Amino acid sequence: MVAAMVTTGTRERLVTTAQRLFASQGVGPTSPRQVLEASGVGQGSLYHHFPTKHDLAVAAVGATVEQALTAARRDLEGDGSGDPGGGVEALDRVVAYVTRPREALAGCKVGRLTSDQAVMDDDGLRDVVTAYFVRLLAAVTATLREAGLPADAARDRAHAAVAVVQGGYVLARATGDEDAMRAAVRGFVALLAPEARR
Amino acid sequence: MVAAMVTTGTRERLVTTAQRLFASQGVGPTSPRQVLEASGVGQGSLYHHFPTKHDLAVAAVGATVEQALTAARRDLEGDGSGDPGGGVEALDRVVAYVTRPREALAGCKVGRLTSDQAVMDDDGLRDVVTAYFVRLLAAVTATLREAGLPADAARDRAHAAVAVVQGGYVLARATGDEDAMRAAVRGFVALLAPEARR
DNA sequence: GTCTATACAATGATAGAC
DNA sequence: GTCTATCATTGTATAGAC
């Protein structure tokens, strides 16, 4: 209970450094050597805390996924009152989620991993990515149901909403223009909530 | 004029093999050695035709992009008559484009490259990817204008349409479920063309 | 727990014979 | 144009001292 706060240790530094490198280069192309050099720890330290690259990747990708999911839920959850009008209306929360400013040119920290062969070939890592999208889709679907959509429509539109964001990242990176994501989101929102209060 | 047909040579075999490997593993993770072994040619042959991996990648990615663009245009172009009713209506052609059956679990052969650091760090390769999406977006935008949308709305909805397809690939790969792409597309089409003739 | 040194395979390419 | 042999570098660890 006393030592619990002092955890800005080597292990944590390795994880945050790995998160940063994974986000910018992907998991496959990032070597353990790069991580230890960028974090300033020695060879032995990394392999003490994380015997293999897989172990480091699970820790770093897991942390990234938790952070991303937390951010999405902040957008999507109402005030819990259940009262229409008690918080922001459900459809507006979905609009808030898709329109949230994003670093479009960097790509989605999680979505990009679906093209990372080192991730998809590793059962443990792939499961972390799968769980992220399953939970994200469930949250968006629930919010759309709250907005009054029937189950099938809610499910399909939730998939479309998340896909527009993911595809927006792809378009922004491909064209080198972060407005490409904004255009995609605008096009979708105009259809989903034509009267959206902006 | 005589020799022009006999071109099922070593060079072409290398390109098609590279296309296949790039599509399944990405460009970065595919080694020249894998390409020459899979195509059955010798070390020297590959490096004779393509002095560097970059040269091989430009040829293979360029071919893939041309094929993808040709397929998209087949969906999007009318019969050229300009007559409403002379061919399939413009909005239906956009619906045809987004609903075309795709190997969702494999990911988009071009879109995946935006997460491939080896591609994005190479000016020549990145330009090929950029050109693909610029031309694809232009084609979808033009078709939506033909459908009667004003310029801004056509541009935004075209971005949304292409993003839904790209994001559909991401969702399908992430969840391991090819229906995820179909759900995203269905959700989008229900909004874009509620009365779509299916 | 952390450090330096080392091992061993794969990558991307070159050399030079045929 | 194609082949075999070779090479320098990087990736992923392991060994063993402190």
TrEMBL record, chains A, B:
Give a yes or no for keyword Magnesium in this entry.
no
| UniProt keyword list | DNA-binding, Transcription, Transcription regulation
Tree of life domain: Bacteria
Q: Where is the HTH tetR-type domain?
A: 8-68
Family annotation (SUPFAM superfamilies): Homeodomain-like, Tetracyclin repressor-like, C-terminal domain
Quote the DNA-binding region ranges, renumbered to this chain. Answer: 31-50
| Gene3D superfamilies documented for this protein | Tetracycline Repressor, domain 2
Q: Does the keyword Transcription apply?
A: yes
What InterPro entries does the annotation carry? Homeodomain-like_sf, HTH_TetR, Tet_transcr_reg_TetR-rel_C_sf, YxaF_TetR_C
Matching entries from PROSITE patterns are given as: HTH_TETR_2 (PS50977)
Transmembrane stretches in the record are: none
State what protein this is by name.
Answer: TetR family transcriptional regulator
Q: Which organism is it from?
A: Isoptericola cucumis
